[in-house]
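User: structure tokens for this one?
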Amino acid sequence: MSKPNDTLTNFLFPSNVRPCWTFRTGTVVVLLASAASALVRAFVRFPPEVVATWESRFLHSPLSLFIYYLALAIVLWLIYVTRHRTSWYAWRVSVYCMVLVGALDPLVNLMFPLRVL
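Assistant:
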């Protein structure tokens, strides 16, 4: 890897944290965060202006939802293709967590719409 990339990797993922930063722990963290988001959406009521601001109009059409999940699948495929580059492991885990959050968030939004006061 290049010197700037090594510096950035060491800054964002210190060597004492890297053994804990795995696909398994990332998945657990994402699932816990999604469960917490679902609980908040299920039990908390929000003012109408907050609901109007937070609701996503982008993911309400089937075509945009298909394109969104197709893009997520392509990124997951890229993570899989780069599995032999051990120097990219921490970055691959980070991107995987972001993609997993991106995949679960629309499902949580559909199952638990925001509730108005």
